[in-house]
Amino acid sequence: MRNAMSRPEHYHLNLSAGVLSVTVALVLVAAKLWALDQTGSLAIAATLTDSALDLMMSAGGLAAIAYAAKPADDDHAFGHTSAEDLAALSQAAFILVSAGVITVTAVRRLLSDTPAPLTSEGAGIAVILFSVVLTLILVLWQRHVARRTGSRVVAADSLHYLGDLLPNMGALIALLASARLGLAQIDSVVALVAAMLMVLGAVRIGRAAWDALMDRAADPETLRGIARIADEFPGVLGHHDLKTRRAGSRVFVNLHIELDGSQTLDEAHATGAALRRAICAAYPSADVLIHKDPANVTPHPEDTRPR
Fold it and tell me: What keywords are assigned to this protein (predicted)?
């Protein structure tokens, strides 16, 4: 299905998913701000922070989709995707600060002799249920788009929103426990658990962004997959100097392949170009550069690079 679609169709489908994601995040932030004001629930505060993060990540994803359609320029020969990693670092810092504020407030409420009661739990429950339904609709559309276009940005955003259902369900439990059983302290416990999950997510996001900015290689599975494609490709007698680095959603691949030195330049070029297309088909986010060497050539004595 994906191969039958043109590049502009891919772009417009991905763009629709990005715009819907930003719109949903905006609506949820506004709704949860109102619910927080009505209830004073820390669990809702945690889901509000998560929705604010969703808004930033969705906006970053939308920008990434727009940048994907923009060619590299003279000043940015490898594109502009590292901006995603810079944005991710700032997002991770925002999450850590927010988790810290929620944790301190939750601990103070738990240690207080007179814990603050929750109010208007019904309004909060209605907002959380609305949030769950709206999130499910968004995830279904994102998964449809990701299947049609193969966009990793849309797929990742879909997975992130799916994970957001957990803190929303925690907030729902806290509000129900307060409304039905009068257990207002459950709210602080749920908030502490949500804050812990936020810290773990921030560390994961920050580490991935830092690794990309430090030119860390792609994951071992990707490296093995690229090597396997090269090993099994017709006309390729061997390969060496496989190097990769990540920048945002892109994976840059440099690969030296060994070919029959007696063939024409046109034949060698055709083999290299076909291999590049095969790698890009298997890894759509890859930017591949292939250098062609004659097989069994003796390295120059001054060339000390490992092969």
Answer: Cell membrane, Membrane, Transmembrane, Transmembrane helix, Transport
Which residue bears the tokens 């090269």?
Answer: 230
Q: Do 190 and 244 fall into the same domain? A: no
Q: In the listed set 161, 183, 213, which residue is the last one of a domain according to the structure?
A: 213
- For residue 300, count CB atoms less than 10 angstroms from its CB and return exposed for 0-12, middle for 13-18, buried for 19 or more: exposed
| Cα–Cα distance, 96 to 93 (Å, whole number) | 5
Cβ atoms of 99 and 202 within 8 Å: the answer is yes
Q: Do residue 244 and residue 196 come from a single domain? A: no
Of 35, 188, 192, 185, nearest to 100 by C-alpha is 192
What 3-state DSSP class applies to 251? strand
Contact between residue 142 and residue 17 where contact means Cβ atoms under 8 Å apart: yes
pLDDT value at position 102?
72
Same domain, residue pair 85 and 17 = yes
Six-digit token pair at 287? Answer: 């930017």
Total H helices, total E strands in the chain? 9, 3
Phi then psi for 112, rounded to 5 degrees?
A: -75, 140
Task: Supply the pLDDT for residue 36.
Answer: 82
Q: Any idea how long the chain is? A: 307
Residues 31 and 85 in one domain: yes
Our count of domains for the chain comes to 2
pTM: 0.56
CA distance 229 to 245: 18
Mean pLDDT, 10 residues at a time, the chain of 307 residues: 52 81 89 83 74 78 66 60 66 74 76 61 78 87 79 63 67 70 66 76 77 80 94 93 81 92 92 94 86 82 65
Neighbour tally for 214: CB within 10 Å:
10
